User: Fold this.
Amino acid sequence: MFFKNKHVITSFIVAPILAIISYFAVDYYVAETPHKAKQGQDYKMLVKPNCRWESGMCDLINGDLEIAITSQTKTYGLNQLLLDSSTPLKGVKFALVEKRNKTSEPVSMLATDANQTAWKSLKINVSKSDYLQFAISVNESVFYAEIPAIFIYKEDLLKNGN
Assistant:
């Protein structure tokens, strides 16, 4: 009796169609349109989820700019940070923030290749509760991010011979 009513049958057909149309219409009207970085502007980098747990690597993204940050030793303590970029960078600076209150002086990273896509830092003492603040210069724009240092550690699962 319920499915014999023509209004119920019509609503079962029309409702999913309207839902799909409204989904795309809202995205079209509300979504931010990507635009080219303007000279002299600052832009925030998207911090990927692997930066929030002990993964051994941290990925940052903003448009075409993709950056991967790793540690030489993948343990807490004295570390050298390594940065790989998808595009050439003009410069990279970072500061170590200890427990969200004591910030070190910004330190410049050194380019390790002629293309300026690979960078390394001097050795720094990093603990699990620290944060790293990055400022990355590309052309005349600056991209920035704050990431927890927890990503530095990477447990070697094959160490015990399992």
Observations:
- The radius of gyration is 23 Å.
